[in-house]
Write a structure and sequence with these properties.
Radius of gyration: 21 Å
CATH topology of the largest domain: TIM Barrel
Structural class: alpha/beta
Number of helices: 16
Order of helices and strands: HHHEHEHEHEHHEHHEHHHHHH
CATH class of the largest domain: Alpha Beta
Shape: globular
Distance between the termini: 19 Å
Number of strands: 6
Strand content: 5-15%
């Protein structure tokens, strides 16, 4: 079993004596939790982390060059071991290197080059390899990174454009420039097609606005504004959007773990309702509530969505509901996300909606996979 899954499974074993405990803590219906627990445990045992970032930025801190060089080499070795062992590695993985701000630029580029060089030598730069650029303040930083990656692709013999980037929005100027334009849109353009996602950075963004530490949160109105802008931009460019993280970690005694789980489950559900289908988790013990809340979201809406889609496919009019093409796309997108994340099985999808995966992907606008529904610890 992958290490992350083992650690994630230990948390409910230690702090949730019954299904009733999990239901009470997460605010979910007990019968639904009872139905979901085997599915969640299976997911944690087989593929606990779908999308992984090893952090050489805030999580790593300032180190001596020799120390960080060794850490980068260790990361490459660990990824190679996971691949060689046949374990279910994350669909998407990579590193978050230090920002291209003047104070961290040299070290950030050094770690980036070392990671990509080592990974290329070991054949690890798969289609799921992603790099996260944090604390972006200018369009020039994205342009510079794109040029660095272009040169590295040539030097390492990697196909042009294969190295993709996530832009982490952690500064106010990344959302709106002094001229009132959404600079994050210009940043995506500056990536020369490399940008695959926009990530919200909860705490750096909040601090930059002067929000007191006690009130820094994914659900602060300032956070909602930033993510609303990001969501509009992401939709226009067809890139993914990831919500931020909570630093209230499920550690300590059972009451402390329960408080952290209650908050996390609520925040995951809140993000999903707003159309943010990924989020950052910082600790393995957050994975049980990540999957419970996510599976509950998709299973909770499954029956009604499947029935409406079946009615559309069979050309049966619904009472009081006009089924427009946009609604059909939304229904299909919801169902395929539930299928991809593991909340729904293909057999029950076919039985309830009367469609298979291929037809569903067509109704959803051609999306056939690879768009992760959620993210494990990053």
């Amino acid at each position: 079993m992958p290490t992350g899954g083992r650690s994630a499974l230990e948390a409910p074993d230690a702090h949730a004596a019954s299904v009733a405990d999990l239901a009470r803590v997460t605010g979910l219906d007990e019968s639904l939790v009872d139905d979901l627990v085997p599915r969640v445990r299976r997911k944690l045992a087989q593929q606990p982390i779908e999308d992984l970032r090893v952090d050489f930025e805030d999580g790593s801190g300032v180190r001596l060059d020799a120390e960080e060089d060794r850490a980068v080499a260790d990361v490459v070795f660990a990824l190679e071991q996971v691949t060689a062992s046949g374990s279910e590695r994350p669909v998407s993985f990579g590193v978050r290197f230090k920002s291209l701000e003047p104070s961290t630029r040299r070290r950030g580029v050094r770690s980036l080059v070392a990671y990509l060089t080592g990974a290329a030598e070991r054949g690890l730069l798969s289609a799921g390899s992603v790099l996260t650029l944090p604390k972006v303040t200018t369009v020039d930083q994205v342009q510079a990174l794109s040029e660095i990656l272009r040169v590295l692709e040539t030097d390492l013999g990697v196909a042009a454009g294969k190295l993709t980037v996530e832009i982490q929005v952690e500064t106010p100027q990344a959302v709106l420039g002094v001229d009132g334009t959404a600079l994050v849109a210009k940043m995506i353009q500056a990536s020369a097609g490399r940008c695959s996602a926009l990530d919200y950075g909860t705490y750096d963004y909040s601090a930059a606005l002067g929000i007191a530490a006690e009130y820094q949160s994914m659900e602060h109105p300032a956070a909602d504004f930033a993510k609303a802008v990001m969501q509009v931009v992401a939709a226009g460019f067809g890139v993914r959007l990831s919500d931020g993280s909570t630093n209230i970690i499920p550690e300590g005694d059972t009451s402390a773990v329960h408080r952290a789980w209650e908050l996390h489950a609520r925040l995951v559900n809140r993000s999903l309702r707003r159309g943010y289908y990924q989020g950052w988790d910082l600790h393995p013990a957050q994975l049980p509530t990540r999957y419970l809340a996510t599976y509950a979201f998709y299973r909770g809406g499954f029956a009604a969505s499947a029935a409406r889609l079946r009615a559309y496919e069979e050309s049966v009019s619904e009472s009081g509901i006009l089924v427009e093409p946009a609604t059909v796309r939304a229904l299909a997108d919801f169902l395929i996300r539930g299928l991809e994340c593991g909340a729904v099985d293909e057999s029950e999808l076919h039985s309830a909606a009367g469609v298979d995966r291929l037809r569903l992907a067509g109704l959803a606008g051609g999306r056939t996979g690879g768009d992760l529904t959620l993210a494990g610890p990053r």
